[in-house]
Amino acid sequence: MTRKKDPNSISGKIRAAIANNPKLRNKLLAKDLGTTSSFVSAIRGQMRRQIIRDINAFPYVPKPELPVVPAMAMKMAIEWAATEEEEEAFQALANAQQVGGSHYKSKAIQPWDYIASNQLGYLEGNVVKYVSRWKDKGGLEDLKKAQHYLTKLIEVNQ
Questions:
Q1: At a CB cut-off of 8 Å and minimum separation 6, what does 60 contact?
Q2: 39 exposed, middle or buried (CB, 10 Å; 0-12, 13-18, 19+)?
Q3: pLDDT tens string 49-99
Q4: Which end of the chain is more exposed for a tag (fewer CB within 10 A), N or C?
């Protein structure tokens, strides 16, 4: 069950303001409504995700060479592209907040990003994790852990 959105709430006012002027900056809108720019950014992200869900739920099956997308939804998705401020906020999320050491921060690609992008399972993901960090954290023990997960992966796939 989805909650009904109250147009008189702060989030309702933010949605209305963004719908009327998608290029409105988060800081300015937050100041006008007495809230934080991160809250405005979160609402803008929800709106963007809703547009994508609406596009994906479009009932027509497009021809592969000519995708059919509702023109208004596509226009709104383009207009609501992330601002520089939103991109910075997004980058400051999980990758910037490593807990318990700095053994992943030096990596060009963090293991969990690689694991998620390639849709690896639990066992495969742990092999990648331990092999990625062995020089910076656990040494040979991490390689043995990776070997243990690899042995289990082979066992369950025979």
A1: 68
A2: middle
A3: 887 777 767 665 555 554 545 555 555 555 555 666 666 666 556 666 665
A4: N
